[in-house]
Amino acid sequence: MSYNGYRVIINGIMIPDNLIAKGSWNAGKPKRIVSTWKDANQIEHEDVLPNRKKDIKFSIKRRKLAEQEQIIGLFALLDHVPVTYWDDDTCTYKSGDFKMDYVPFTHENTEYGDIQYAATPIHLTEY
After folding, report:
1. Which of 49, 56, 94, 118 is positioned for an S-S bond with 27, CB 3.0–4.6 A?
2. Which secondary structure element, helix H or strand E, spans residue 67, and what is its range?
3. pLDDT for the residue 1
């Protein structure tokens, strides 16, 4: 499958690439460390879960109210959020069940009957 001009669909809402802040996209599969400990020789060890989960972080750029209204549905769920994402490891789209960190909305200003939203960080972690 080829790249279709978007990196992520969250809860059925596609985030256009032009709404993702430049340089903010980070998607990987970090180790899932259960515990760390030192043996009798003071050598550190890690107990790691065998399956890695996708971790996606990016920022939605500053935007006006009209753009916020187009994407507001992606914030409706925080648990068991359906996500389709571009996977750089395989150069294909993949889908999964994710949890999303709470997203605070910050207003930079309100002028001329409109709201200017600050950039909004998004963090998705696969179950």
Report:
1. 56
2. helix 65-71
3. 62
Coil, strand or helix: which one is 29?
coil
Give me the amino acid identity at 46. Answer: E
Residue owning tokens 């963090």: 123
- Confidence at residue 32, expressed as pLDDT on a 0 to 100 scale: 73
d(CA 33, CA 53): 12
Query: Over the stretch 92-123, which tens digit does the pLDDT of each residue have?
Result: 999 999 999 999 999 999 989 999 999 999 99
The H or E element that residue 83 is part of is: strand 81-87
Q: Which residues in the chain come in under a pLDDT of 70? A: 1
Cβ atoms of 79 and 99 within 8 Å: the answer is: yes
Q: Which two tokens stand for residue 119?
A: 């950039």
36/92 Cα distance (integer angstroms): 34
| Main-chain phi, psi angles of 119, to 5 degrees | -55, 140
The single-letter code of the amino acid at 38 is K
